[in-house]
Design goal:
Strand content: 15-25%
Shape: globular
Distance between the termini: 46 Å
Structural class: alpha/beta
Helix content: 40-55%
Length: 388
């Protein structure tokens, strides 16, 4: 057995790594998987940067940013597989929820909700907690406000808080809302002091959220082990994506050594049946979080390029530099190599038009494969070939 150490933050979307270890998918590939639980993304970044771990459960934009050297210790990181799509919720205080209700704005209405936030931001920036400044949480929020014609820097005051402390920030009135990964949105909504106003999937129906990030130097020196790791994580994600496994998955993730929260909170996001408020209101969002096969796991470079076009200016770098780093980070070639002798569908292309699919659609691949829905709330169609 070859030992591989991976870091993770205790969130539902760490499931493919945890299941790879717990249910033997890693062992089957000859890997003894060592998982290290970290309290925040900075700790993950630093351990990955200095080589204390070989890989990690990582925020998509963070992987690109690390390659760009946007951190204390530059390190070339690659992402050969996506762990999940979606998975975040936008949660407000009860006071904000009351005002939204008075304005007639219901759950998962991104356009009227965004316009309302913009209006509030004219007098005082709307304070939103995010788990890390370079994250899909922040990227999605800025895109949401920008698409509605406003400057995110003027409207939003993004404040960094660990996911486990988001609720406390809301209670202390330090923030007006937060965007956070499961299970912390559901947990807050049942606590009598918060309301889930929107899922991140309402803004982009197929947003890549976390990747398996691997140190490039280690990957180049250990291609066989790296490929085996990709297969183990792929098969674990496939298992996690099956509805019949969600109860067992929630119980495993709920263990004290992993997430350490109630299994019922975890299962809400997995099932897509979300508790929205202390009254027990329920909403059905089938794609609230998505695990699965190649339709989730394939690291489309167009996804990385979308992130680069959104964040280049905010990161203070040229668009060309950001795009180059994006395509160097997301590695479909490694995914194809790792999965070439399996029955996993492998798409013919490495980039695609993002936002064009309103429903599941068959795409060209070595065997039957479908993608979608992947629409953006504002009907954006992102063609990476035309991105400037």
């Amino acid at each position: 057995m070859t030992e591989v150490s991976l870091g993770y933050v205790p969130l539902t979307d760490a499931a493919p790594l945890i299941i790879a270890k717990e249910l033997g998918f890693a062992q089957k590939e000859g890997i003894s998987l060592i998982l290290t639980r970290e309290t925040n993304w900075s700790a993950i970044r630093d351990k990955l940067s200095v080589g204390l771990i070989q890989g990690a459960h990582l925020l998509c934009p963070m992987a690109i940013a690390m390659r760009l050297g946007l951190g204390p210790i530059p390190r070339s990181i690659i992402a050969p597989i996506v762990l999940n799509l979606n998975g975040n919720t936008f949660v407000t205080s009860l006071d904000v929820a009351r005002r939204l209700d008075e304005a007639g704005i219901g759950f998962n209405q991104p356009k009227p909700l965004g316009r309302w936030v913009i209006q509030q931001g004219k007098s005082q920036a709307f304070r939103v907690g995010v788990p890390y400044p370079i994250s899909m949480h922040a990227t999605i929020l800025r895109y949401w406000i920008r698409s509605l014609g406003a400057d995110p820097k003027a409207v939003l005051d993004l404040r960094v808080l660990p996911p486990s402390l988001m609720r406390e920030g809301l209670e202390a009135r330090e923030i007006d809302a937060f965007m956070v990964g499961a299970p912390f949105g559901s947990e807050a909504a049942e606590s009598a002091d918060a309301v889930v106003a929107m899922t991140s999937s309402a803004i982009w129906a197929a947003a890549p959220e976390k990747v398996l990030a691997i140190d490039e130097e280690w990957a180049d020196a250990n291609p066989g082990t790296g490929d085996a790791l990709v297969r183990a994580v792929y098969n674990a994600g496939l298992w996690a994506g099956r509805n019949e496994n969600h109860s067992v998955l929630a119980e495993i993730l709920a263990r004290p050594e992993y997430l350490g929260v109630g299994a019922s909170h975890i299962e809400q996001m997995l099932s897509g049946h979300l508790t929205l408020d202390p009254k027990g209101s329920i909403a059905s969002v089938p794609d609230a979080i998505r695990f699965g096969g190649s339709n989730v796991s394939f690291p489309w470079q167009s996804q990385a390029l979308w992130i680069a076009t959104q964040e280049a200016e905010n990161w203070g770098i040229s668009l060309g530099t950001a795009k180059a780093a994006a395509t160097e980070t997301f590695r479909p070639d490694i995914f194809r190599r790792a999965m070439s002798e399996t029955d996993a569908p492998l798409p013919n292309a490495s980039q695609k038009v993002e936002g064009a699919l309103g429903r599941k659609t068959t795409v060209p691949a070595n065997r039957e494969m479908s993608l979608g829905p992947d629409y953006f709330f504002d009907a954006l169609v992102f063609d990476p070939a035309l991105a400037e």
